[in-house]
Amino acid sequence: MTPHPPDTGPPPPLLTRRNALFLDLDGTLLELASTPDAVVVPQDLSALLASLASALGGALAIVTGRALETVDALLRPWTVIGAGLHGAEYRLPGMRTIDRLPLLPVRNIVEQLRSRFASVPGVLVEDKEHSVALHYRLAPERREECESAMLAVTCQRTDLRLMHGHCVIEALPAAADKGSAILRLLQRAPFEFRVPVFLGDDVTDEEAFPVVSGCGGMSVRVGASSPRATHILSSPSDVLRWLRASLTALEAAYGKASEP
Ligand SMILES: O=P(O)(O)OC[C@H]1O[C@H](O[C@H]2O[C@H](CO)[C@@H](O)[C@H](O)[C@H]2O)[C@H](O)[C@@H](O)[C@@H]1O
């Protein structure tokens, strides 16, 4: 599929049973909020994802920068399948446990950043145990300061890489990226042999778009347009509308599925 120039990408067609669906969380399924803990989860989201997963024969995964345990808590009672920490951890289909890339110590970085920004209102250090995010959404004027501080505390760490996101700079395992995470999931049932569809809104998602397009799939940028994406949806509300419409179409075509 040919990527479209900015602002001209079409909305994606509705899902079919040939698709494997990969969804980013923040900014894609959830509206961005002032802090990571302040997100509001739509009331029907957990049930919608569970029904869609069933309709797709289980081929639905969340691919997120959050830790999977955090996503479980947000999307309860649905138990998430997919990749967390930008691909540093996985819960594979049929498993309850979470597999992680070799553990990288980030406590020292967390402590240095907390001490550096202790008296700076609006800057927040998110400790994700295997990665660290430094948020400045509530103090956008601190962006450069945050970037320099993160660079200073990670410059010796070749096992980590820095990633800029929405009002955040993150240090994450160098080996983790969402494109590889999607490829890994695509090698396993029930994802294998399906056409991938990935929805995301951020820099880390941009990395995965060419991977998905390269597999003949659809890459859907949420919010701002992207020359790397094949399709566009304008907001998380639009995403939810599209997911609900896809579920209705799947159930009309194939009947209501039982749990995968
Ligand atoms: O890959 P994602 O699911 O999009 O996760 C990316 C990061 O999302 C979270 O931060 C972002 O959302 C917050 C809540 O809306 C917002 O306050 C923040 O400014 C955004 O950057 C999360 O806290 C990070 O750990 C994720 O990596």
From TrEMBL:
Source domain of life: Bacteria
Keyword Metal-binding recorded: yes
Pathway: Glycan biosynthesis; trehalose biosynthesis
Enzyme Commission number(s) of this protein: 3.1.3.12
Keyword hit for Cell inner membrane: no
A GO term, aspect molecular function: magnesium ion binding
Stored CDD domains: HAD_TPP (cd01627)
Cofactor or coenzyme needed: Mg(2+)
Alphabetical keyword list: Hydrolase, Magnesium, Metal-binding
Pfam family, one: Trehalose_PPase
Enzyme kind, highest EC tier: hydrolase
Similarity comment: family membership: Belongs to the trehalose phosphatase family.
Main function: Removes the phosphate from trehalose 6-phosphate to produce free trehalose.
Name by which UniProt lists this protein: Trehalose 6-phosphate phosphatase
Protein's organism: Panacagrimonas perspica
Phylogenetic lineage: Bacteria, Pseudomonadati, Pseudomonadota, Gammaproteobacteria, Nevskiales
